[in-house]
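hey team, just a heads up i'm posting the complex here instead of the shared drive bc the drive is being weird again. everything in one block, sequence lines first with there labels, then the predicted structure for the whole assembly after. its two chains so it's a bit long, scroll down
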Amino acid sequence: MTAVQQGVRADARESISQTLLLAQWQFRRQAQFLPLMVVVQAFMAVATVVGYGLLVGDPDPVTALYLATGAPTITLITIGLVLTPQLLSQSRTEGSLDWLRTLPVPRTAFLVSDLLVWTLLALPGMVLGVLVGVWRFDVDLSPAPWLVPATLLVSLTAASVGYAMASLLPPALAQLLTQALVFVVLLFSPVSYPAERMPAWLQDVHAWLPIEPMAQLVRTGLASEAFTLPTRSLVVLLVWCVASVVGAVLALRRRA
Amino acid sequence: MSTQVLLSVRGLRKRYGGRTGVQANDGIDLDVAPGQVVGLLGHNGAGKTTLVHQVVGLVRPDAGTITLDGVDAVAHPEVARRRASIQAQANVPITGLTPRRAIELVGRIRGGDRATVRRRTEDLLDALDLGAWADTRAEKVSGGVARLTSFAMTAVQPGALVVLDEPTNDVDPVRRRLLWQQIRGLADAGHAVLLVTHNVREAERVVDHLAVLDHGVVLAADTPAGLTASLRGALTLEVDLPHDGPITWHPAVRPVAAGRLRATGTVPAADAPAVVAWAQAEVDAGRLERYALTPASLEDVYVRLVGDERVTEEVPA
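-- predicted structure starts here --
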């Protein structure tokens, strides 16, 4: 191995260890509220399944499958789009972000460490949502082997969009916008119901937004025998993922 | 003292908010050498924090250069961050953590190995007499302890340059002394220390070199002795007034500053006996509450440099 390669490896090792230490910092700082957040997330996932069930009445098997597989997507998106920007705005307001940015840490490490914390946080709610869905609607799931990386992709994209939003917008505006987004995701996105139920113009809008591809990816990952993932959706999602990660990192690197 | 320079700032300019905005830095020159504590004195809003933020790449200068350890810090902020550790002016929120945990985590994020960081944390907690709070959750510690913790987070794995922004705020007098020893210790260990403060009196005893910053410009830079040289052979007269209002000084007194119920001026040493006699008579007549005569200090130089609007208002030429 050349000296340069060794240097690169040492750098990579250091970046990973810094990312994990930063995650530990963020995790411990939230430790007091973590149990409550997990409970709220789990409640939300369960409510999406059970509450929608009440709205729909006695669902047919396809509707039931949509409801059961939509809940985990909703959990992932709300954590990424709502919780991440809210906490980033908070750390901007309280001044800890500016100080953390003086540390000799790659800017991407901030994004990755936050993502790690929020994904771990979303996990219990997600699993519980799926289990409740299976129990309530008596559906059969057929998880695909790529379900875990798929959820990570969804989580990464949602958190990066949230991150970029919270970095670029004034804190108060970012908070308001994320609140509004919850409603869009819950009610006006083809996550827990098929896209055909929406008006045509909204379907067109969603063809370019990342929400529908996220839902399709998780849905297909959970019930791979009942659904297939259109290639176009995967491409749209990947483009959003790359664009939002680049945007978030640029925002972190930005100098006043 | 070493002649080599670790941090070199030349012609640094930064304006916020476009043409109608604030000129935070207006052509700053500053040098800090290893083993040196350099004090950067200035009012709130003099441009101190803007300067610090430019060194570690949080703010981009409009013009000028920053060289840190031979590296262009404006072009390579990530290298600058590796070589500098910063204590911010505001306390870093560490709710959820204990002082010990926060110090250790920062030490390891800065690249220290576990055993060394643990030992150094223990030493710092001891040296600053924080043992009793080391394992208390941060939301239950006082402002002074939080301030010292934030210093220890900076000093646990210090960079070649250590920047301390108002490190003594909220710290009690006893621990303040311990803190000054640690700051001096960092310089003695070969680090370059830039001490940002408006506490002129305390800084005087610790710093090797001083720069006075006002409205984004360095007004004077020298050793404390060099800065006070012009006042050698002069004394400071400080008086408390029984009422608010202008004071009529003895003719030998040169007014320096006047605030509510308090005023100071300088007195040539030769005139001291006459001025003391005058002041005592003023006290007896009830026109002064109290007076004190002390050696001329850096604070007098600072006030003379930076100016005090009230002096010019209240004292006819």
